[in-house]
Amino acid sequence: MESIPGWQVIFLGGIATWIVFSSILNVTQKLRSLTQPWVSHYVMSGTSIVLKIQKYEHRYLDAFFSGLSCVVSVPFYTAFLPLLFWSGHCKLARQMTLLMAFCDYMGNCIKDVVSAPRP
Predict the structure, then answer these.
(1) Residue pLDDT, tens place only, 35-91
(2) Which residues contact 41 (CB under 8 A, 6 or more apart)?
(3) Cα–Cα distance, 116 to 9 (Å, whole number)
(4) Is the pTM higher than 0.70?
(5) Where are its TM segments located (predicted)?
(6) Of 66, 92, 100, 116, which is least surrounded by CB within 10 A?
(7) Three-class secondary structure of residue 118 per DSSP
């Protein structure tokens, strides 16, 4: 088994430290009060553009985006990542797992902090 690089340990430790300090200092509410008015205004001003784009329908685009949504879903990665481990690409699989976890965490963190309305 390969050793875990030091930067990955430091990175995960940094995430854990951020979680602890942001909970203690109530960072979420402070950031939300700063960002939510701007984001809400931006979402409401762009609603007409979103509606125009959604009115454009095409059979091939529907199939393309339907297939694309399957490739970026959790079930796809749940099936794909073990294949990397089983095929002997442990380092790549570990890095992709960390990348997926980081992106998932950051995306949910941003959604929680901003709490933007849906158009």
Answers:
(1) 888 888 888 888 888 888 888 888 898 899 888 888 888 788 888 888 888 999 989
(2) none
(3) 33
(4) no
(5) 6-27, 63-86
(6) 66
(7) coil
